[in-house]
Amino acid sequence: MRQQALYNARQAASRLGHKASSKLNHLSILLVSIEQMSTSSRDSLVLGRVIGDVVDQFSPAVALQISYNGRRLMNGADFRPSAVAARPRVEIGGTDLRQSYTLVMVDPDAPNPSNPTLREYLHWLVTDIPGTTDIGYGREVICYESPRPPAGIHRVVFVLFQQMARGSVDVAPLLRHNFCTRNFAVDHGLGAPVAAAFFTCQPEGGTGGRRLVLRPPRTT
What we know:
Belongs to the phosphatidylethanolamine-binding protein family. The protein has 2 domains: 47 residues; 143 residues, Phosphatidylethanolamine-binding Protein (Alpha-Beta Complex), CATH 3.90.280.10. It has 4 helices and 8 strands. The longest helix is centred in the first third of the chain and has 30 residues.
């Protein structure tokens, strides 16, 4: 869809005058930038096995910016428990204030990456977040619980969904452990994610048990 929009912009630019053409060329550059950012984000989610373990393949469509104490989250970055004790600042992109979003934060490696019997552990759930705003304007359904992994290196994953309507996600999960992001999305008609991000977390003074290596998943 973005490639078609880029093609249309370039075709229109070739038919218009210099001033209009300049504006459309700027739009073309912006579309290329968005496409590159989406591809980079998707690649890191595949390498970190977020796509596969937590969500299925999807195309990022909305900007999602997350930061802890001013440090912006980059996919795969390491944050120790002390750095994520307080809930992060989360900014949602989009173009329409009337559009609502749901944010899910889970740990697919609980309690131990070698034996994740509690997969997924739900750390946070916020719904009805208006587009172009931040998490503070949403409705906190499950309060933020900071990651405190007992052993190993855990992935902590944020997944953003676009809601059908404000108030359409109104049921809180009964338990935090063994939450399933895929099933939650199906139950509430959320469709595919529109954005996702993740960081890694391990015990404060530890060196980690199993090292998280960003490599493509195995194929059979």
